[in-house]
Amino acid sequence: MNLTSRTILITGASRGIGAAAARAFARYPVCLGLLARSQERLVALAEELNQNPNVEALPLVADVSVREEVEQAVAQLETHFGAVDILVNNAGVGMRSPVGAIDMAKAHLLFEINFWGAIHVIEAVLPGMEAQRDGLIINISSIIGRRAMPNAGIYCASKFALNAISEAMRLELRGKNIRVVTFYPGVTDTDMTKHELTGDATHESRGKVRRTPVEVTARAIVRAAQREPRDAYATLFDRVFVLSATLFPALMDRMLARFYRARDE
Ligand code: NAP
Q: DSSP letter at 213?
């Protein structure tokens, strides 16, 4: 999609990938809705982006897990800028625990945010997109939404579920000129582990995993908005990882088992 004068809604825009995506979209003359729960961060980011005379940014305080809050935020955005042209459905949280020791309340909360939250936002923006017969939805999944990892089963399941919705919607909305991109970030350099619902954040830092700079992921999201591929990745490594996991699942089991054994020793 040509980005000029588009209205773009980014959820989870208060930090991490969402905030970086907002800055990357702000290189173009666009109207930005910045949605998350942390008002102060959103207001500061909107002020920063509004320094650019070609950009209009609006902070939208809402919890994606609360449908009414999402509907109010989208209504506010539409009043300001008109219907959403591009939705970057990015808000999400992590959680770590092996099956057998799952904190059920937190697992349900994770699904309320990562899965149902994403659907709340899609349902809120769809009427506007349908009315203008144009729109692009970019669902932010994860490479581990294609190949699950030990101790991350619930988080991975929420992203597998989101992928299913992307696939179904892509065909449902084809006749309405609304396109759906699934974007699969790999390990990206954000503070996500600090905000996990459960788990020991220091655990991850022991791994020798290369982290993609958040600006690289953000630029790849902007490219995905412009080119509209079915599936999009931030790096070649992420693409090859998903392809290998799809083609050679048993081999991937063996490689991952070796990786985790070496990491935990
Ligand atoms: P992050 O730095 O923790 O940022 C998460 C964002 O989501 C924040 O802006 C947070 O804002 C927002 N958020 C969380 N719960 C929310 C809620 N209930 N309602 C509204 N907003 C909410 O994480 P990130 O690394 O940028 O991750 C962004 C997305 O990329 C997530 O969907 C994540 O699953 C996915 N991803 C990340 C990685 C990675 O390595 N970082 C890899 C693959 C996929 P508030 O707290 O202010 O609400």
A: P
DSSP bridge pairs for 70:
none
Q: Which helix (H) or strand (E) holds 180?
A: strand 178-184
Ligand 1: lining residues by beta carbon, under 6 Å:
11-18, 36-38, 63-65, 90-93, 113, 117, 140, 142, 185, 187-188, 190-192, 195
pTM comes to: 0.96
- The CA distance from 179 to 166, in Å, is 10
**pLDDT tens readout for residues 182-237:** 999 999 999 999 999 986 554 454 456 789 999 999 999 999 999 999 999 999 99
Give me the active site residues, please: 155
CATH of the domain at 77: 3.40.50.720
Tally the residues of the chain.
265
Answer yes or no: is 105 within a domain. yes
